[in-house]
Design brief:
This protein has helices spanning 49-62, 75-83, 171-176, 180-186, 196-202, 206-215, 254-267, and strands at 2-5, 18-21, 26-29, 36-39, 64-67, 110-113, 134-137, 149-156, 166-170, 190-193, 225-226, 228-230, 237-239, 245-249, 274-277, 284-288, 292-296, 306-312. The chain has 318 residues and is of the alpha+beta class. It binds N-oxalylglycine and manganese (II) ion.
């Protein structure tokens, strides 16, 4: 047994100060406000339960973990790893399938970026990710039940100067930093996200563009999400807003609605909340959409960038 004292890290895993990690496994805090890097674990291996358990424990403490050098990870194995966190999330079940994405052959692993455009890609649907910036969000918040967890494997990455860096923010911290009066005011409020069609259209998905050309852009989602989301496992509260947020519902005065929506959306994008991830080939990132936002820089598309993404389904936010 390898007993690691992680209390000396700038951000300790506060539940206990000494955590017994399985032999060979390491956990290191990033130098920023969130994220832990896990070493000594090859996801392609048939891992013992104690390793999976330790990985999940670190994940739930931090909301965001990084595993480097996962060059043996196949899409089939990635799908299995994703299922540690919940049943497979399948896209394209809402909005008449306008948000369907390319997947790797018979797996649920989505292809984002260059490889989806290859002539021999043999993919199920046109890809959306053509190098534009992705603004701060938690994944698929247009759905009533969004995926809880995302696993993103950097199969082909670009040099950091060519963009494509991805940033993560801890929404527990964003909530904790609100003043008491604001916390009280927003406790039971809900918000309306942009619709699946509008979301898919804005990121340039082919089926969405066709639908909008035919029927116009209909953006009247009936999904309502809690402003303050309680994590079902950790029971911590997160300020669960993002660029998906069209408006906070239930206030009488439209000016008040706009001011509060603006104030809280600004609150979650403050610089100090964000941790930058610079990609190396075969980095695997696993994040918790119930307590984290992320955004990604656009990249110079003269370089190839391909991500394999898989998602575990969640439960209705409360
Ligand atoms: C995502 C996403 C980030 C990236 O996969 O959900 O936002 O780095 N992508 O491509
Ligand atoms: Mn995303």
């Amino acid at each position: 047994m390898n007993v690691v004292n992680i209390a000396s890290d700038r951000r300790s895993l506060d539940m206990i100060d000494r955590f017994v990690l399985p032999e060979g496994m390491t956990v290191t805090a990033t130098d920023g406000p969130c994220g832990f890097e896990i070493g000594g674990v090859d996801l392609a291996d048939d891992l013992p339960g104690e390793v999976i358990g330790a990985l999940m424990w670190v994940f739930y403490k931090s909301g965001f973990v990084i595993l480097r050098g996962q060059d043996r990870l196949t899409p089939e194995r990635q799908a299995e790893v994703t299922e540690w966190f919940g049943r497979t999330f399948v896209r394209g079940t809402m909005g008449d399938g306008v948000d369907k994405m390319a997947t790797v052959s018979s797996t649920p692993v989505q292809i984002l970026g260059s490889a989806a455009e290859d002539p021999d890609a043999n993919v199920a649907a046109a890809d959306a990710d053509r190098g534009g910036e992705l603004e701060p969000h938690s994944d698929v918040q247009d759905y009533a039940i969004p995926p809880a967890v995302t696993v993103l494997h950097g199969v082909e990455v670009v040099p950091t100067e060519a963009g494509g860096n991805t940033y993560f923010a801890n929404l527990y911290q964003a909530y904790d930093e609100l003043d008491t009066e604001t916390k009280r005011r927003i406790e039971h409020l809900k918000w309306r996200p942009t619709s699946t069609l509008a979301t898919a259209y804005r990121v340039g998905m082919k089926a969405a563009k066709e639908s909008v050309a035919k029927n116009g852009l209909i953006d009247n989602s009936d999904v309502r999400h809690p402003v303050v989301r309680t994590h079902p496992v950790t029971r911590r509260k997160a300020l669960w807003l993002s660029t998906f947020t069209e408006e906070i519902c239930g206030l009488d005065d439209p000016d008040e609605t706009e001011a509060l929506t603006r104030k809280l959306k600004d609150h979650v994008v403050q610089d100090h909340l964000w941790q930058k991830h610079i990609w190396a080939p075969h980095d695997v990132l696993i994040w918790d959409n119930r307590c984290m936002n992320h955004w990604r820089e656009g990249w110079d598309t003269s370089y190839r960038r391909t991500m394999h993404r898989s998602q575990a389904n969640g439960s209705r936010p409360f």
